[in-house]
Specification:
The protein is α/β, with parallel strands linked by helices. It has nine helices and 16 strands. β12 and β13 form a beta hairpin.
C-alpha cells in the first residue's frame, strides 16, 4: 500500500514562475534555468521509478512512501522512496543522469562522461545513501525498531555503467526494480502488518515539508529586477489586462476570470507569503486600488490590518492551482 505519494517539488514550481519574470539577458537567468531543468529531469526520473514500481505487488504486507524529508540528530535528510516489509526496509536513491557513468569505491568516485568525452566528477549517490542510512537507522533505534536495512541506487536513464571495487547489486535501472525486489529473500518476520501500518503512518507524520521560498532570497534577487504583469495561461506572455471585469490577453485574445490567482502563486514562490494592495498593483500592472482589493478577496488570501495598513496573507493551497508546467 502506498502511504505517501510523490508530488511535484515546490522548487520546480517556483523556478518555473521565476523564469517567466526574469529577463532572459539577466546574469542569473542561465543558472536558474539550469537548476530548473535539472530539477525537472530528477522529478521525471522519480516518476518513472514510481511507474515501474507499480508492477511490484508482493504476497506479504508492505508499505511504500515516496519523497520523505526527515530530521534526526539535528540533521535533515531526504529519502526518495522507501519500502517497508515484514523482514527488511529498503531505501531507494533515484538519479536521472545522462551520459556514461563511472562508479567506484575506495576511494568513492562518481564520474559522468558526456558524449564529447568531457568528464565531470559528481557527488556520489552511494555516499549520499550511506549518510541517509546512518540517520534513518538512528531514527528507527530512537523508536526501538530493530530491522535490517538495504538500499538501491536507481538510474532512470539507461546509462552505460562502469562499476569498480563494489557490489553491482546495489545499483539498478528503474525497469529492473520489480524483478530485483521479487528476487529478495525474505527472512523471518520482524514487523507485523499492524506494525508496518503504524510505522508508515509515523513516517508520514514525521515528514517535514521542504520550504524553498522566497526565491528572491535563494537567488539574491530584488523585485525590481523582475518583469511585471499577469501571464496568459494560453500563450504565457505577461500581457493580460483587466478590462470589463475579466482578464484579456493583448497577445492572443484569450479571456480569463482567474488569471490573477496564478500571479498570486508566482508571488508566493518568488516573494513570499505576504503582500499589500500596492505591491499587488505594481506586480500585476493594475492601476485601481479598488479593483485590486476585489481581486485580492478570494479563497486563497486572508487579510490582517485595515485600510492602507492591510496585509494579505497567501495560502500554500495556491501551489495546488493548475499551471502550464508540463513534463
Amino acid at each position: 500500500m502506498i502511504y505517501k505519494t510523490r508530488e511535484m517539488p515546490k522548487l520546480i514550481i517556483g523556478q518555473h514562475a521565476l523564469l517567466k519574470r526574469l529577463p532572459i539577458n539577466h546574469e542569473k537567468y542561465e543558472k536558474i534555468r539550469l537548476d530548473y531543468y535539472n530539477g525537472k529531469a530528477g522529478f521525471g526520473g522519480e516518476r518513472e521509478f514510481d511507474y515501474q514500481l507499480r508492477e511490484f505487488i508482493p504476497p506479504y504486507p508492505y508499505a511504500i512512501l515516496h519523497d520523505l524529508f526527515l530530521k534526526q540528530d539535528h540533521a535533515y535528510f531526504q529519502i526518495d522512496s522507501i519500502l517497508i516489509t515484514p523482514s527488511i526496509i529498503i531505501l531507494f536513491e533515484i538519479k536521472n543522469i545522462a551520459g556514461k557513468l563511472h562508479i567506484k569505491e575506495n576511494p568513492t568516485q562518481f564520474i559522468r562522461e558526456a558524449a564529447n568525452g568531457e568528464r565531470t566528477v559528481l557527488k556520489s549517490p552511494l555516499a549520499e545513501m550511506e549518510r541517509k542510512k546512518h540517520f534513518f537507522t538512528n531514527w528507527l533505534q530512537q523508536r526501538n525498531i530493530d530491522i535490517p536495512l538495504t538500499e538501491f541506487v536507481v538510474f532512470a536513464y539507461q546509462n552505460e555503467l562502469t562499476i569498480e571495487n563494489m557490489a553491482s547489486s546495489r545499483i539498478a535501472f528503474t525497469y529492473e526494480i520489480p524483478n530485483k525486489l521479487r528476487a529478495l529473500e525474505m527472512q523471518s518476520d520482524i514487523l507485523t502488518s499492524e506494525q508496518i501500518r503504524r510505522l508508515a503512518n509515523e513516517l508520514k507524520n514525521a515528514h517535514r515539508e521542504y520550504e524553498p521560498f522566497p526565491l528572491t532570497e535563494k537567488y539574491k534577487l530584488t523585485t525590481q529586477e523582475l518583469n511585471t504583469g499577469v501571464a496568459c495561461p494560453t500563450c504565457n506572455h505577461l500581457s493580460m489586462r483587466w478590462q470589463l471585469k475579466k482578464w484579456n490577453c493583448q497577445a492572443c485574445g484569450h479571456q480569463d476570470l482567474d488569471a490573477h490567482l496564478i500571479t498570486l502563486q508566482e508571488w508566493y514562490c518568488i516573494e513570499g507569503t505576504q503582500l499589500t494592495n500596492q505591491q499587488f498593483r505594481q506586480f500585476t500592472n493594475i492601476h485601481s486600488r479598488h479593483i485590486a482589493k476585489r481581486l485580492l478577496a478570494n479563497p486563497f488570501t486572508r487579510i490582517s490590518g485595515k485600510k492602507r495598513y492591510a496585509i494579505y496573507h497567501l495560502s500554500p493551497k495556491l501551489l495546488s492551482n493548475p499551471t502550464n508546467l508540463t513534463f
